[in-house]
Amino acid sequence: xxxxxxxxxxxxxxxxxxxxxxxxxxxxxxxxxxxxxxxxxxxxxxxxxxxxxxxxxxxxxxxxxxxxxxxxxxxxxxxxxxxxxxxxxxxxxxxxxxxxxxxxxxxxxxxxxxxxxxxxxxxxxxxxxxxxxxxxxxxxxxxxxxxxxxxxxxxxxxxxxxxxxxxxxxxxxxxxxxxxxxxxxxxxxxxxxxxxxxxxxxxxxxxxxxxxxxxxxxxxxxxxxxxxxxxxxxxxxxxxxxxxxxxxxxxxxxxxxxxxxxxxxxxxxxxxxxxxxxxxxxxxxxxxxxx
Length: 291
Fold this sequence. Notes:
By secondary structure, the chain is of the alpha/beta class. The chain contains ten helices and 13 strands. The strands form four sheets. Strands 3-2-1-4-5-7-11 form a seven-stranded parallel sheet, sandwiched between helices. Strands 6-13 form a two-stranded parallel sheet. The protein has a two-stranded parallel sheet with strand order 8-10. Helix 2 (73-96) links the parallel strand 4 (55-60) and strand 5 (101-107). Helix 1 (13-22) packs across helix 5 and helix 6 (223-234) packs across helix 10 (281-290).
């Protein structure tokens, strides 16, 4: 299949391109600069795009990092526009060119802070804070690709030592200052990068997967379980909890997200026969540290 991938410059996107090509797909990467290698095509997300003929799927991972900077008004506008604008452009192209499938990134913020409630792919979303409102608008922009099949990736914490939240956490733990956040009772959805890559291939191949798809490991973990497991694997202490005010001093408003509880389960993946390689947080973190 010919697959177009946008927003693939990060620690998920580049391995995804390699994974799809290894599965026999012909992949075109959309880039905003001059192409540097075969298979890349320059685009401007603010302008209409003509997708390659016979495109069978578009995977959209576009979006500025939510934890990369403190949330000034200007940066929040960038977080929003860097998702909504390219998603709208790609959804329009998918609809007008009769492309069968759009796979579009989203996040767990759509569920909000839900305590111990078990959240499936069909659970209601919330509004009322920045990331929740963004997620609703982002997913709405993707759904304008209909009548194409649209799969929404509600991705938990992707685990790999090379990027995402785990990379800076590793430094903190190695320095001996890693600890649970607050009480540690909040649920932390996670998925190994290996299973995330495999899940994208599964979604592309599985016609019945449409709408929100929870990308999370099958055995949920609390923040305390995550912390204890990571500390054990690194042979570092995890004694001192990190209070919310301390995280807020470091990252500002984004600290709110770190203390939310999202007990998300991958019901749609399970229902369609997806087999996780890493089922527990210990397996996921072990793979993240050594793969």
